[in-house]
Amino acid sequence: MAGYTEKELKIIDTAYKIFVRSISKVMDTEQIGFIDKAYRLALEKYDGRKTISGGLFVLSLIEMADIAANEVGLRSKTVVGIFLHRIIRESDVSIDYIRENFGERTALIVEGYDKISDIQINTVSFQSEQFRKLYLSLIDDIRVVLIKIIHRLYDMRHREDVDAKLFKRYLKEVKYLCIPIVHRLGLYEIKKELEEKVMIYENPVEFEEIKNKIRVSSTEQEKLMENFLSPIRKALDDEHIDYHIKWRTKSIPSIYEKMRSNNLPFEQIFDIFAVRIIIKNSKRNEEKTDCWRVYSIVTNIYQPNPKRLRDWITSPKVSGYESLHTTVRANKNWIEVQIRTERMDEIAEKGSAAHWQYKGKNNKQTTDEWLNQVREILESPEYGKLDDRLSNSCKSDKIYVFTPNGDLKQLPVGATVLDFAFDIHTQVGSQCSGANVNGKLQPIRYVLNSGDKVEILTNKKQVPKSDWLSVVTTEKAKNKIKRYLKDQEMKEAEIGSALFYRRLKNWKIPYTDKLLNIILKEYNLSSGIEFYHQIATEQIDVIRLKEFILSLDDNKDNRLERNETEAAKEKQSEDKIGEVSIGNNLNDLAFKVAKCCNPIPGDNVIGFISINGGVTLHRTDCNNVKALKKNFPYRIIDVRWNKDNSEFSEVTVSIVANNELGLLGLVSNVIKDLHINILNANFDTKGSRSVAKLVLQVNNTNLLEQLLRKLKSIQGVLEVRRVS
Q1: Beta bridge partners of 606
Q2: Which residues fall within 8 angstroms of residue 608, CB to CB, at 6 or more apart?
């Protein structure tokens, strides 16, 4: 120990002995010996080391150990972790040495602390929850996070021992990670202290102002609280209840937050007091009854605010916190009253760390149960039911990965570079060619780990491939890849369909649904899209396809009936692209009428070939035809109506007329005289006008035009038009 003076060794030894005496009632000789072994190693390896302010570094470790054992209620493994948590980084001690001399669990704690200490927390202010989960995903023992909190509490208490730049970083950790965690664990005294340390740094003027006002008004507070408590004490004594009462002003950060959120000065914040009534010697099975009995006494004296009742006795918090809270009015002041038993108060003071002490005599086993509870609380704030799994078996199924800018992305365990790329943006994923992971080049298949820093590399010539589906694990990436492949298949199918129809024209073979179905069956394909895609990608031999189609004419089963008349007409009309007729051969050609323009026989129409093989009819003046001709000119075919067409089609007619008596009868007579069937009729009156919409059955445009002329000639009719 050449680095220490004799005086320094005495100071260290005295501080350590005081600490050992403080834990001797809750730890046995073996546990204290385990701690002593770690302390001696730290004393040797940090020989003579000083803090920034000139203090002895080992004394800071002893103070942290005291916080762990006496303020948080942790035990020997955590205390050992305190003495050794930085030793492999700051000395020649290896992790193998720790494992050999202190066990696997201690080695995991030391390694875990090392991992989370390397995390960059630039974006922690708006990704607090993500960073908390990252911490948990990197570690195998929850004690690591607790040691981190204890270390930061020490740093906040000894700002003089922390580098100014590092202090700003630590302040972020405290504000966005430590405070939310200690709140969930029920460590309210530690939470209060950390919040005050943060406020002193961020809002020092406001902190001092509120602090001074509380100090100045302390005499008034004493008088107010004595007047408030006097009738409560008398009533409790009359009921022979064994109790003691504590009261305090709420924390300065809490008062400041009320002032800021309500836009009020300090003098108008009334509920700055909290009173705690602690029931002594309450039997465990009578605790609820005793607490509600005291509640009844208090609310008989003072008017309660029913909206401020909090029953954490019936349903304790996940941290184990149990208490009955109410807020009552005393003159102009609202005062919070907390009612609990001594057992509940112990848990409230030390949080969930005190909870395990009430579960049984076997402290070693119940400590593991408590550590598991802590992990469950931190991983799922909604978690309320304990189970008996060990803390190291609760590994997360998520990983947390950094972008180059320090943003944190959550992905499932097993996610690859390609998953990460698609999580950033579809285009980044589509052009991903690899990544720079922690400074090393890695392929798209590289499996990421929590804490990795990933920079995606892209190539404009890169496109998604079908084998990428075996590389990714996230549904988001899979869906993006599938969508791209499907879009590509559709584009290629459009090319293939145009090629197929041109081939049919050259071969003088008319298209029918029956032909397509026979081809699909022959090639064992499920859809027209798949067939056209294979045509475009040359997976189907066009020469063999032609031979197969031509062979159908000679097939004894007569699977294909070729229309010789249509073939002859096509031969005479080679200047037209795929001209067909519409009429009695509708069943062969599978036409359907477009809903956008609803053409009827006699309208000038064009045919649009769908990828599935059918043809949709549009009126040539339809608003959609222009776009179809521009984008898919090769899928447009000329069509014409047969003169002998007898099919009926639906058409909608709109009539606007003056609201005159007998108008409906006149309209009905015109339609009846022309032997037109009405499928639906809707009449509406708007002021002096009547508007009618009629859905009719007609078989050609001549009949429709005749109807429109006769309707326009009716007296009082202002407008008649066909609705597309």
Answers
A1: 618, 638
A2: 594, 615, 616, 617, 618, 628, 632, 635, 636, 637
Residue 277 CA to residue 377 CA, distance in Å, equals 28
pLDDT for res 371: 53
Cα gap 709→655, rounded to integer Å: 12
C-alpha pair distances (Å), 47 with each of 3, 58, 101, 705: 5, 9, 20, 107
Q: CA dihedral defined by 145, 147, 148, 151, rounded to 10 degrees?
A: 160
One-letter amino acid of 16: Y
Find tokens 């079908």 and name the residue. Answer: 466
CA distances to 348, 635, 672 from 690, rounded to whole Å, are 76, 43, 20
CA–CA dist 555, 672 (Å, integer): 51
Spans of the chain below 50 pLDDT? 355-367, 381-394, 556-578, 584-589
Segment holding 262, helix H or strand E: helix 252-262
Is 596 in contact with 617 (CB distance < 8 Å)? no
Output the pLDDT for position 559: 45
Question: 498: which residues sit within 8 A by CB, 6+ positions away?
Answer: 634, 635
How far, rounded to the nearest angstrom, does the alpha carbon of residue 8 sit from its chain's CA centroid? 54
Contact 415, 478 (CB under 8 A): no
Q: Tens of pLDDT along 135-190?
A: 666 667 778 888 999 999 999 999 999 998 889 888 988 888 888 888 777 777 88
Name the residue among 319, 307, 372, 326 with its Cα closest to residue 348.
319
Q: How many CB atoms lie within 10 A of CB 5?
A: 10
Q: What are the tokens at 46? A: 């940090």
CA pair distance 15, 8, nearest whole angstrom: 11
Terminal-residue alpha carbon distance, the chain: 98
* Cβ(105)–Cβ(383) below 8 Å: no
Q: What is the Cα–Cα distance from 31 to 103, expressed in whole angstroms?
A: 13
10 Å CB burial of residue 444 (0-12, 13-18, 19+) is buried
C-alpha triplet 189, 191, 197: angle, nearest 5°: 105
Give yes or no for a contact between 644 and 585, defined as CB atoms under 8 angstroms apart: no
**Which residue, chain included where needed, has tokens 């988001």?**
476
Complete edge-to-edge strand list for the sheet that includes strand 649-658 = 677-686, 689-698, 649-658, 717-723
What pLDDT was estimated at residue 129?
A: 66
Secondary structure element (H or E) that encloses residue 434, with its range:
strand 432-437
Q: What's the CA angle centered on 521, arms 519 and 525, to 5 degrees?
A: 90
The conformation of residue 282, written as its DSSP 8-state character, comes to: -
| C-beta of residue 101 within 8 angstroms of C-beta of residue 69 | no
Place of tokens 């009995």: 293
**Residue 400 backbone phi and psi in degrees, to 5:** -130, 120
Burial of 283 (0-12, 13-18, 19+ CB in 10 A): exposed
384 token code pair = 């309320």
What b-and-e string marks burial along 324-337, b requiring 16 or more CB atoms within 10 Å of the CB? bbbbbebeeebbbb
**Token pair for residue 462?**
């890169």
